[in-house]
Structure prediction request, 178 residues.
Amino acid sequence: MANGFQRAIYNLANAVPLAIMTALAWYLEFNTWRIPTILLVTAVAVIVLFAFCFYHGKNKCSVKRINVSKIISKDSWLVAYVISYVLPFAYMVMSDYHIVSLLVVAIMLILVIIPAIMALPNILLFFVGYHFYEIETESTGVGDYMLISKRRRIRNKADVKTVMRVFEKLLIDTKGEK
Prediction:
């Protein structure tokens, strides 16, 4: 199972497209490289850390059998992410930003996201071909597990038999082929 650092990297990776769009917008608006370079280097560092943590963690997780009672695709969440989160900020650059305010907001987000028992679809995994499903298991009746799978469509709940548990609410499909 993943540790707190890996969970933080998993959640932080969702901000990579925002950092890239903000870097591009900043450069086009102000024609300077300082802030865009910082944002792009940070984005690349998060991508590298995320890839290492995900693939290393994926190989270290134990496999367990589950009985799925319900499965719902969550790929639509990623479309909503792009439309509502990335696009509005892509064209808005803060020319008069205050670093202390940005740090306070970032710290608040970190304090909420890291201990929260939740799993969100990850945009970077979607870009490399993974799909997301919300599943409910028969044994626990819990209905907010997030399943990551390479399979494009899982229509039959009986098709998911074994998974790897990454953290509390995040599972990876072991069948995983398209």
